[in-house]
Amino acid sequence: MRFIFPLFLISALFLNAQNNYPQDYFSNPLDITLVLSGTFAELRSNHFHSGLDIKTQQRTGLKVKASASGFVSRIKVSHYGYGKALYITHPNGYTTVYAHLSKFSPDIEAYVKQHQYNKESYEIELFPKAEDLPVIKDNLVAYSGNSGGSGGPHLHFEIRDKQERPINPMLFGIDIKDTTNPIIKSVYVYPLDQNAFINSKNTKQKLRLTPLKNGDYNAENIEAIGNIGFAVGTYDRQDLAANSNGVYNIQTFVNGSRNFELDFKRFSFDETKHINQLIDYEHFSTKKQRIQKLFRKNNPLSIFKSTRNEGVIKVEDSTYSVYKIRVADYKNNESWVTIHIKGTKKIATQPEEEKVTPYFIKADQTTNLKKGIVSVDFYKDTFYEDFYIDFEVNNDTLKLHKDIKAAKKSFNITYDVSKFSNEDKNKLYIARLIGYKNYPAYTSTKRKGQFLTARTKKLGTYALTMDTVKPTISARNFKSKQWLSKYRYLKVKIDDEESGISNYRATINGKWILMEYDYKTKTLTYDFNDGVINDTKNNLKVIVTDNVGNNSTFDALFYRK
Fold first, then answer.
1. Are 411 and 367 a contacting pair, CB within 8 Å?
2. What is the Cα–Cα distance from 365 to 230, expressed in whole angstroms?
3. CA neighbor of 67 nearest in space, from 30, 29, 33, 95
4. How far is CA 200 from the centre of its chain?
5. Left if phi > 0, otherwise alpha if psi is -120 to 50, otherwise beta: which for 37?
6. How do 222-235 and 334-343 pair as beta strands?
7. Among 20, 230, 377, 504, which one has the highest count of C-beta atoms within 10 angstroms of its own C-beta?
8. Of the candidates 494, 489, 493, which has an alpha carbon nearest to the alpha carbon of residue 513?
9. Whole-prediction pTM value?
10. d(Cα 543, Cα 525) in Å, to the nearest integer?
11. For every one of its 561 residues, what pLDDT tens digit does the chain have, with 9 covering 90 and above?
12. Judging by beta carbons within 10 Å of its beta carbon (0-12, 13-18, 19+), is residue 355 exposed, middle or buried?
């Protein structure tokens, strides 16, 4: 029989009664049954997901409707991130966001292209006035796509408040069919200081889980002493999709009293970076699994609710406790884990010794490390905690610890490149070496005199890398001197295997043309419907520059009536 706390029932009823968000104001942005590939606030790399990812039946071009009347207040077109994104502000103060679009509705598309041609730039950000682009609820505003950092065709949909804080759209009555309980993948227990022991060990341990017939779980019993904490690996599934999505609420209880709560209802963009302190960052870095800590340490996230002793469990000798974890989705489907804790001073092994190095980071102080031609600047509050850091420089290679410590903000890595010739200096960049093959991944590098500087949040191995190879450019759907009268699109493939593409410029007969760049397919696309081409004989010229200044030029002749 499932054990349910009366306290929780009262709390749940109270929370549901306190939903003051309008329920009938916003409509579904698509004319299909809503099926999700991503839920609100689920865990992503370095951020919480800020909306719902709505599946578009594995295709692009579905009609996207205004979820409510208002006006287009912002339009952003970028190669990465949200790709083509539309922001609509509504009279009730909320803003809806529609991202990864393939194109906008005709009037909005014309407005955007006019500004792109005036600026001669595909990437653009616009802030129309209220009277420029008014929209009516359920009218067409765009078409779904796969632009930007999208991993497949879908519509990213958000609702934000006046403070630009994203809120779970389900709170506004956006309904998703879900009768499925969340899945508990793993539970871990941590000794939180050197005086804490779990099963006679001073190390993190994974607990065996036994699924029960009712969908709950029992974890193996533990013997412990001192301050301990738990973490859970969990996900949710809705009825119409097999995607592993985020959950809505996590609570813990000790002997029937609430101990800790994570409430994924709303957050602000300036705090989302602290996700790396919510998860076990080292665990994610080494095992590629996100587990959420059920205790709070140096973390200002607003999603923490009702924490007692910051979620830490103090286990004393000769005590018996029952620790429970409740994981729920928005529809209040729930899964429980029960863990029995016996307090004992049983003879324990020695605490795990921390590796000591000559370099120590104090989180509340600025630290500068320098050796050879490399210096690293950590500013105050770069990290969440103090620790000994590995710092080693061998020729042009910097070994800066392992990427197992979460950073709040970026730090600087600077190389003195005065020993290089002027020609070589212009081809150098700072790369992070990734994987067992030490693949050099470009890190945004700035040049100032004799110094190269990269800003990053990731520890790891870095090296000076030289790029002398020009980008490649080739025709994708045509040949030079070809007649293209029946073509709607002109496509060119561009690539750079070293430092990566920085910018490009395309002209026909000397006139700038708008070519949309899809970095996933490495394709530039021009739409002849833009009306720039009026001549029969046309000269296409494309110039592509990489991140260290190498550039290539592609010329082609084509004919069109």
1. no
2. 30
3. 29
4. 38
5. alpha
6. parallel
7. 230
8. 489
9. 0.93
10. 14
11. 344 444 444 344 444 445 689 999 999 999 999 999 999 999 999 999 999 999 999 999 999 999 999 999 999 999 999 999 999 999 999 999 999 999 999 999 999 999 999 999 999 999 999 999 999 999 999 999 999 999 999 999 999 999 999 999 999 999 999 999 999 999 999 999 999 999 999 999 999 999 999 999 999 999 999 999 999 999 999 999 999 999 999 999 999 999 999 999 999 999 999 999 999 999 999 999 999 999 999 999 999 997 889 999 999 999 999 999 999 999 999 999 999 999 998 766 777 778 899 999 999 999 999 999 999 999 999 999 999 999 999 999 999 999 999 999 999 999 999 999 999 999 999 999 999 889 999 999 999 999 999 999 999 999 999 999 999 999 999 999 999 999 999 999 999 999 999 999 999 999 999 999 999 999 999 999 999 999 999 999 999 999 999 999 999 999 999
12. exposed
Q: Which residue has the tokens 């994610």?
A: 284
Residue for token digits 């406790």?
321
Type of residue found at 110:
A
In terms of Cα–Cα distance, which of 203, 71, 81 is closest to 129? 71
Tokens representing 46?
């370095």
Q: What is the 3-state secondary structure (H, E, C) of 239-281?
A: CCCCCCECCCEEEEEECCEEEEEEECCECCCCCHHHHHHHECH
Beta bridge partners of 124: 77
**Distance between CA atoms of 93 and 116, rounded to whole angstroms?**
29
Strand 70-77 and strand 124-126: the pairing is antiparallel
- Residue whose entry in the numeric block shows the structure tokens 């393939």: 102
Q: Are 19 and 172 in contact (CB under 8 A)?
A: no
Are the CB atoms for 445 and 408 separated by under 8 Å? no
Nearest Cα residue to 523 out of 490, 487, 556: 490
In contact, 376 and 413? CB cutoff 8 Å: yes
How many other CB atoms are found less than 10 A from the CB of residue 221? 14
With beta carbons less than 8 A apart as the criterion, state whether 398 and 420 touch. Answer: no
Closest to 245 (Cα-Cα) out of 297, 323, 324, 168:
168
Nearest C-alpha neighbor of 111 from the set 68, 159, 74: 74
Bridge partners, residue 411, by sequence: 456
**519-558 per-residue burial string, b: 16 or more CB within 10 A, e: under 16:** eeebbbbbbbeeebbeeeebebebbbbbbbebebebebeb
